[in-house]
């Protein structure tokens, strides 16, 4: 029986050694898996931080672009209001000129009644006064259009600058 006990003991020792080796190998595998998971988690955290930084940068650029666009639109609106006020003042001046021309034409008509020679001169004066009034209105209208065009060009130039700043941040 001692031979048999030795064999059983040897088998038990062998089984215990095998079990201990198996357990140790399992621990090593678990430790390696934990290291890989820790490395992957670190990479995921870094990637998430980079993504957040990029998103914040893009959001900042978009906010700045919106502010620039709003400022540009506000400037345009203010300039258009100034132009409209200028047009109203020009219209008032033109109306005054037309009244002055009309009264001058009336005086010319009165002078024309004195003599036949003055009639021709008075007619010319009336035609000239009418043309001057129309010309003043045309010039004022064209000047207003030029100012409006200049304001619109300024708006577009400001918008282009704001868009370039946004595109250069990308």
Structure explained in plain terms:
By secondary structure, the chain is mainly alpha-helical. The protein has one domain. 97% of the residues lie in helices and 0% in strands. It is built from 2 helices and no strands. It has helices spanning 2-112, 116-169. It is rod-shaped. It starts with a helix and ends with a helix. The model has no long low-confidence stretch (mean pLDDT 82).
By helix and strand content, what is the structural category? Answer: mainly alpha
Tell me the count of domains. Answer: 1
Total count of helical runs of at least 4 residues: 2
- Strand share of the residues? under 5%
3D shape: rod-shaped
The count of DSSP E runs of length 2 or more, i.e. the number of strands, is: 0
Poorly predicted parts: none
The string of secondary-structure elements, in order, is: HH
Q: Cα-atom Rg, whole angstroms?
A: 47 Å
Largest β-sheet summary = none
N-to-C span: 86 Å
Helix coverage percent of residues? Answer: over 70%
Specify the oligomeric state. Answer: single chain
**Integer average pLDDT:** 82
Write the layout of secondary structure elements.
Elements: H1 2-112, H2 116-169
Helix pairs in contact: 1-2
Brief sketch in words of this structure:
The protein is mainly alpha-helical.
Brief descriptors of the model:
170 residues; mainly alpha; rod-shaped
């Amino acid at each position: 029986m001692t031979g048999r006990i030795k064999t059983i003991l040897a088998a038990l020792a062998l089984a215990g050694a095998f079990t201990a080796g198996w357990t140790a190998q399992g621990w090593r595998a678990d430790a390696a898996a934990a290291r890989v998971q820790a490395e992957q988690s670190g990479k995921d955290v870094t990637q998430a931080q980079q993504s957040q930084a990029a998103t914040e940068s893009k959001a900042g650029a978009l906010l700045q672009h919106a502010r620039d666009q709003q400022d540009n639109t506000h400037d345009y609106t203010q300039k258009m209001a100034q132009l409209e006020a200028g047009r109203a003042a020009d219209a008032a001046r033109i109306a005054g000129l037309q009244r002055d021309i009309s009264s001058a034409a009336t005086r010319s008509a009165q002078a024309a009644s004195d003599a036949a020679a003055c009639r021709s001169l008075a007619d010319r004066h009336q035609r000239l006064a009418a043309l001057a009034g129309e010309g003043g209105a045309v010039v004022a209208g064209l000047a207003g259009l030029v100012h409006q065009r200049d304001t619109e060009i300024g708006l577009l130039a400001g918008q282009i600058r704001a868009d370039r700043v946004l595109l250069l941040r990308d």
